Amino acid sequence: MADYLAPLRDMRFALKHLAGLDDVLALPAFAEAGGDIADAVLEEAAKFATGVLSPLNWSGDQEGAKLTPSGVVVAAGFADAYQQFVENGWASMTGDPEYGGQGLPNLLGTAASEMWNSANMAFALNPMLTTGAVEALRAHGSEALKAKYLPNMIAGTWTGTMNLTEPQAGSDLAAVRTKAVPHGDHYLITGQKIFITWGDHDAAENIIHLVLARLPDAPEGTKGISLFLVPKFLVNEDGSLAARNDAVCASLEHKLGIHASPTCVMAFGEQGGAVGYLVGELNRGLNHMFTMMNEARQKVGVQGLAIAERAYQQARDYAKERVQGRVVGVPGKQPILHHPDVRRMLLTMKSQIEAMRALAYLVAADVDYAHNHPDEAARARYQARVELLTPVLKGWCTEVGVEIASLGVQVHGGMGFIEETGAAQHLRDSRIAPIYEGTTGIQAADLIARKLPQHDGAAMTALLADMRETVAAAARQEGAAFQSIARQLAAAVEALVSATGWAKQSMAANPAAALGASVNYMMLAGYVAGGWLMAKAALAAAAEPAQDDFLRAKITSSAFYAEQILPKAAALSVIVHGGSSFAEHLPAEQF
Hints:
Elements: H1 8-18, H2 21-25, H3 35-53, H4 55-63, E1 66-68, E2 71-73, H5 78-87, H6 106-140, H7 143-155, E3 158-163, E4 179-183, E5 186-197, E6 206-213, E7 226-231, E8 233-235, E9 241-244, E10 247-252, E11 263-268, E12 274-279, H8 285-321, E13 323-326, E14 333-335, H9 340-372, H10 376-412, H11 423-430, H12 440-451, H13 458-475, H14 480-509, H15 511-516, H16 518-543, H17 549-565, H18 568-577
Parallel strand pairs: 3-6
Antiparallel strand pairs: 1-2, 4-5, 5-11, 5-12, 6-7, 7-12, 8-9, 10-11, 13-14
């Protein structure tokens, strides 16, 4: 199995030219985090990902987590790696300084998250969920709860989880049955939750569960759900750990991938009730939990990018070494990298990874602006774009991530189907990303029914205007590559404009047709956003005074994306205009 090496030059290029890292660092909130700190963070994160996390990826997949009478034990090396993660300060990177965090930009945290997930996705899920729990508690918790729990959670000494799903309540959270009964200054929680990522483990001294439950007299449906903090170990007033709470892992799920990530069935209250504390307002738990879910959705989009990068690196390295067959017009046998179709596959992987990275970093930077820009109107504009692009980032990047991991297997040929090469693990691991934190269909429905119409579509209108400016800039450049980029991007943008108009009208006149077309609309938006950012990348590369192979390759990759990926936009626009087509007319019994 090939080792993971963080693509630092490409990451720095995307951070600087596409996400505007320097401008983010210029925000008053990040006054102490200069460029030197940013470079040091990236370098050290790369070393940790390559030297500590990556070597555990294969062994962790083979061993998995185990449930013992005393609780869940993680795969060999994972607990030690997590302690290093905490001791090196990675857990607290973007945490609020008021509670001991370093206060670095979300943009830098996202770049580090990409490395953790490429190196070892099963490991990276633990800090990812903790960060989301921190955000939910910081936004909605009482001052007492924040003071008691946030310092250790931000430090990583305690980890966090999200407890939504129940056997009868998957995406339909209105069906949640877990109960919360008032008991003095707290609540007693009883019920079962499933699919709880890192719900129990021995890598940290405490686990803080955020649990959706309803009071006995709560209204039916989602309006009757509240959010509770349920620690694995109760916490004394002085911050020390007290007795074990009535919250245990009842079983571990046996999964297609991410075997080293313990996915738990959690049982609350089997001994009378787990002590829980209300977070935020009664009956507004789902609203509060969406703070954590939106954070997680952005990071899962990064997972799609990260696994794609890992699969690409392995396929590329294999293609450079594997000698098979003869290349047309070339004497003697050559590595398969020289076969035209293998080059097509690898560049399909590479160009889309660059587009996904650009989108992930752009959204991360917009989050920083939305939270920290000194101008209120600017904060609102950036927040609107974050809300618009979050479902695209989550849905499009994870779907394309699976496609790229599958191409990675294909590049290996028959060896890709053999577990020992490691290519199959990337495909297995990638497959969960379009499912958890809201399936692709849920992201698409959110985009077309909620996010697109917000503020009368102002966020999409502004985004399309930015795209058209880039088309014009590319058209002004000389050379066949830029003319192709401008031509293909212009057509793709107009396809998105047309599909957007149809979507708005259809949501008002025939919502079923619009929702039936929503995934294709979301994928269309993703491909065009990727093409827009690839065009910006080519322009930035051409503007660099000292041209080298990396910059020339950036232009080539952008032109390839324009010619081989962007034409999908026109086809998807046609499909979107067809709505759900004849799918609505097939009787249920004929499926």
